[in-house]
Write a structure and sequence with these properties.
- With 585 residues, the chain is mainly α.
- It contains 25 helices and no strands.
- Helix 8 (155-181) runs parallel beside helix 10 (215-229).
- The protein is globular.
């Protein structure tokens, strides 16, 4: 068979999707040539505006287009992207929370009584605090004696090992997932990760149904779940960075980042609500929810604006003057007759990506990654161990139930929602991400100290101090993992159309996740010697996190004072504030 004629970029740019669908054999010939052309041009380092790709519009959006008879505006699409990614990552975090809720069931403290069943309704409908009543039987099967292999003398340590296994695989998988996220279709990549996460989270809970008491089973389920969970964060941050410019990015991402706390809260309440049915259901139900979230992503997520026909120029014009662009008009201008794929500049199908080493060399990536190592260590220690700490600590002279401890721990995340929004807003107003993040970390030190000293005095004081600690602990964590990662992922040092959003996000959050794995592991050992040691560790980590941003803080202060940094030239790391201060042009 003679080779098919090779199309030129100019020829491809003139092809209308309606022509392709009127000729059944044309799409296959066209895509065959396009694949070869893309490989050859990528090898030569050629990328121009004329090179386009026919992309798959998400099926849910295609169905809504057909039902409505017209397309959405750019503003509406942005709302949809915010909502879909918000739900997606809330599902991720909800599926991580059950392990912290069931710790006291798997490894109960013999000095405390089991769960009281007086209040049939979970918080916020029922009471936050449910006092333990001596001599009352538990409604959770086997909770008074725990669950082998976690109810022995080394049970607390094994629970810490389970956490570190999950988070270690999560952090290592993050580096690979971020690089893949800049190469693959983010919609399919994220969907696969959510479905895989749900399956293995549910399998962990099936250990209760199947009466499994082998430690390696639970360890293996958590490790595989950690690998699938690594697909989430680089993907959702990359999608948001693709759809939103730097104008008000800190505030937008601060509000959007509430999905972390919303996921933690919903996961805690959901796991606590079904705990009386058996601790395994606290994993199975959240696992089913994240699978449903994956279906939502598959149906409605468009990773790039170009995937549905919007151009970069239209996005920038909308950001600059606030004018919206109507999708159908835009589609007609692109030569689309109202249905099927829409051609446009490089979207999900073909974008040049950068390597891990090149992404690490972007100014500011390493300092923020190291800062997040210690910041996330603090945040995830609270995430995994706060319910256990509350159930082991007398508050107002009373110990609380496992269910009540899970309910109360959600208030830490309520403070975290306020902290994320406040940090984003302040950093936008000051145009200083490093100053904002470092300041929050320094204030978190006395906040945690006050919580440890006075949190046990009364119930009301515990709630107030917990929310304040959550505000300052989660504020910089949210800022660095969202706005800062997106800023650095679109740094001006990147060449041409190269994008490093998912890769940079993976480097920063992957490094932070190593700290997140270390914190719960250390807590498992230190808590056996007293909780004071745990809080000392957390305060030292918060101090180090703030100090690691010192050079960037000095650079931002010097830039605001309009004077050079002492010592002459700023050096290689000085431009780190450039993506944080500059406008997207």
């Amino acid at each position: 068979m003679s080779p098919l004629p090779f199309p030129s970029p100019a020829f491809i740019s003139t092809i209308s999707p309606s022509f392709l669908f009127r000729h059944p054999s044309s799409p296959f010939r066209f895509l065959h040539h396009l694949k070869i052309l893309g490989k050859n041009r990528k090898k030569r380092g050629i990328m121009d505006a004329n090179f386009v790709l026919v992309r798959q519009i998400p099926p849910g959006i295609r169905l809504l287009r057909a039902a409505r008879g017209r397309d959405w505006t750019l503003k509406t699409y942005r709302y949809v992207i915010l909502l879909v990614t918000f739900i997606a990552y809330a599902c991720y975090h909800a599926s991580r929370k059950p392990s912290s809720i069931v710790k006291s069931v798997l490894d109960p403290d013999p000095l405390n009584q089991p769960l009281s069943g007086n209040d049939p309704y979970p918080w916020p409908i029922g009471n936050v605090f449910i006092k333990e009543e001596e001599g009352q039987n538990s409604s959770i099967e086997g909770s008074s004696r725990g669950w082998a292999p976690f109810n022995g003398k080394d049970g607390t340590s094994k629970l810490g090992e389970i956490d570190v296994a999950f988070l270690s695989c999560y952090s290592l998988g993050m580096y690979v997932a971020g690089h893949l996220g800049d190469k693959l279709d983010l919609r399919l990549f994220l969907t696969s990760g959510m479905v895989g996460s749900g399956i293995f989270v549910a399998l962990f809970g099936m250990g209760y149904i199947w009466n499994v008491h082998v430690f390696w089973f639970y360890l293996a389920m958590q490790m595989v779940a950690g690998l699938f969970q690594a697909t989430g964060w680089p993907s959702v941050v990359a999608v948001i960075g693709n759809w939103f410019g730097k104008r008000k990015r800190g505030l937008i991402m601060g509000i959007w980042n509430a999905h972390t706390s919303v996921g933690n809260i919903s996961g805690s309440l959901l796991a606590a609500a079904v705990l009386s049915c058996g601790w395994g259901w606290s994993f199975i139900v959240p696992g089913a929810f994240i699978v449903l979230g994956g279906v939502l992503v598959f149906l409605f997520l468009a990773p790039y604006p170009e995937d549905i026909g919007f151009t970069t120029a239209q996005l920038m014009a909308t950001d600059d003057n606030g004018q919206d662009v109507e999708g159908q008009n835009r589609g007609e201008a692109a030569g689309n007759d109202g249905g099927g794929p829409v051609p446009g500049p490089c979207g999900s199908g073909l974008r040049t990506s950068v390597g891990l080493v090149e992404a690490c060399l972007i100014p500011g990536v390493i300092p923020f990654a190291l800062c997040l190592f210690f910041s996330k260590l603090v945040a995830y220690t609270f995430l995994y161990w706060l319910p256990f700490y509350l159930s082991q600590t007398a508050i107002g002279g009373h110990f609380m139930s496992v269910k009540s401890a899970g309910n109360l721990s959600t208030l830490f995340d309520v403070g975290g929602i306020v902290g994320g929004i406040l940090a984003g807003y302040i950093s936008d107003r000051l145009k200083a991400r490093a100053i904002t993040a470092a300041s929050f970390m320094y204030v978190a030190i006395p906040a945690m100290l006050l919580y440890r000293w006075y949190g046990s005095v009364s119930q009301s004081l515990n709630i107030i101090l917990m929310m304040i600690a959550g505000l300052f602990v989660n504020g910089p964590y949210a800022l660095i993992t969202t706005a800062v990662s997106a800023d650095l992922g679109t740094h001006s040092s990147l060449r041409g159309d190269s994008r490093a959003l998912a890769t940079v996000t993976a480097i920063i959050d992957g490094t932070g996740s190593i700290g997140a794995a270390l914190g719960p592991l250390l807590t498992g050992f230190l808590s056996t010697r007293g909780w004071n040691l745990v809080f000392v560790m957390l305060m030292l980590c918060a101090l180090v996190a703030g100090l690691l941003l010192t050079r960037l803080v000095i650079a931002e202060i010097a830039e605001k004072a309009d004077r050079p940094i002492p010592g002459g030239k700023q050096g290689h790391e000085a431009p780190a504030s450039e993506p944080l201060l500059g406008n997207l042009k």
